[in-house]
Amino acid sequence: MFALGASLWGQPAPLRAQASRAGVRRVGVLTLPVIGPRAVWADDGALFAYGTSLDDQHRRSALVVDTVLRGARAADIPVEQATLFELVIKLKTAKALGITIPRSILLRADRVIE
Predict the structure, then answer these.
(1) Which of 33, 74, 87, 91 could form a disulfide with 47 if both were Cys (CB 3.0 to 4.6 A apart)?
(2) Neighbouring residues of 100: CB distance < 8 A, sequence distance ≥ 6
(3) Would you kindly state where each structural domain of the chain is located, as residue ranges?
């Protein structure tokens, strides 16, 4: 996690996923807003999460594997950039921190956790 003023930003790290989740819970006790790169961070207590959709990444990965298994050379497969992003907001955390999320942001969110 990186400190940004009076908040924290968490970086994705597959090998540290459990430690990151525990960190979100611990920081919540300190009343600092936490922003994470995956929806699961908001599920675990972060104020909000914004990042690529893991479901979409898994689907795209399966298509690449299928292409390779059908005989394509890996070098001939174009590199893809993520195109689907998710915004998840946790209202319980916002309320606990005394933060009001504007309605326009709530309407744009892919998921709002009460």
Answers:
(1) 33
(2) 94
(3) 2-53+84-113
pLDDT digit string, tens, across residues 27-41: 555 577 888 888 888
64: exposed, middle or buried (Cβ count in 10 Å: 0-12, 13-18, 19+): middle
- Measured in degrees and rounded to the nearest 5, phi and psi for residue 79 equal -75, 135
CATH 3.40.50.2300 fits 2-53+84-113, yes or no: yes
For residues 51 and 13, what is the distance between their CA atoms, to the nearest angstrom? 13
pTM: 0.70
